[in-house]
Amino acid sequence: MVVHPQYVTDAHNAGCAAAKQGKFVEFKKAFWDKAFGPYAAQHDPSKLGVENIMAIAKDVGLDTTKLKADMDGPDCKAYVQADMAELAKFHVNSTPTFFINGKHLNGAMPKEGFKQVIDQQLKVAEASGTPGASYYEKEIMGKGSKQFRSKADTGK
Amino acid sequence: MKRLGSAALVSLLSALSLIACENASRLDSSVKNLPKEPTAAATNDKPAASSFKGDHSGSVEDRVARLEANYDRYAEALDFLGKVYDQQKAQQKAQADRAQREDPDPDAVFAVDVAPDVKLGEVEGPNSALVTIVEAWDFA
Question: Is B9 exposed, middle or buried, given 0-12, 13-18 or 19+ CB atoms closer than 10 A?
């Protein structure tokens, strides 16, 4: 989700392009360490720019020529836009926001809070008897709400 | 007989005025009977910030007149405070209503489509996992 498009649109496009080379996780971790970290420490937006993205991509073994082409191509731009549109359906307008098996959690919270929700959802999933590979598709996508629903909508 | 009647009336008025005097002194005594605030020496605290004492002198009429004058003096301020209070209550209600409209239903299961992300490979962990965490994050 792009909350600061002036700074990180390139980075999100690069994430998509890295995924096309099967190295999204590696790129994401390296970007946090070598781009966001210095940016946050020095308040220097250039750390999030294309030059640093390319240096990081090279470090994690990405084909930088292909990466740049994919970053600038229509697929990754459409993908990032589609991701944002999907989150907008659920009124996600800040980061971080999480959905744990469809349960909405807004903002940062202690690890223990996440563990509690994850354990709770794991119990529900285990009790369903649905295999993991199809659980999200069947139970969450199949039965969940396809759009935002507020407390007021349910009269709570 | 008429004179006698007039005299009787005067006596009655005198008696009433005496009662009025009695009323004034009752008011004084009720003020006097109020519990006294502890003195600084008794409590070992600092003296009260304000040493303001109301003017309790004069007749009942004088004192009521002073109260009414004070009320008139503070009426505008009280009216203003009342409006501010109403405004704050309205803002609190609007905030609560907005939260009701904007806060997600805690019991809802939201079907966020992750198929494009899985297809592209913007995903971590095995596809056999029973719990899927969707992260909405930004690189900045």
Answer: exposed
Task: Say if residues A25 and B120 touch (Cβ distance below 8 Å).
Answer: no
pLDDT tens, A123-156?
Answer: 999 999 999 999 999 999 999 999 999 988 876 6
Query: Rounded to whole angstroms, how far apart are CA atoms B118 and B134?
Result: 11
Cα–Cα dist B130/A125, whole Å = 6
pTM, two decimal places: 0.69
Inter-chain touch B123–A24, beta carbons under 8 Å: yes
Phi, psi of A26 (to 5 degrees): -65, -45
> Would you call B130 an interface residue with chain A, using a CB distance cutoff of 8 Å?
yes
Q: Which of residues 82-101 of B touch A (CB under 8 A)?
A: 97, 99-101
Are B105 and A153 within 8 A, CB to CB?
yes
Provide the sign of the torsion angle of the four alpha carbons B58, B59, B61, B64, taken in this order.
Answer: positive
Distance from CA of B62 to the nearest CA of A (A): 57
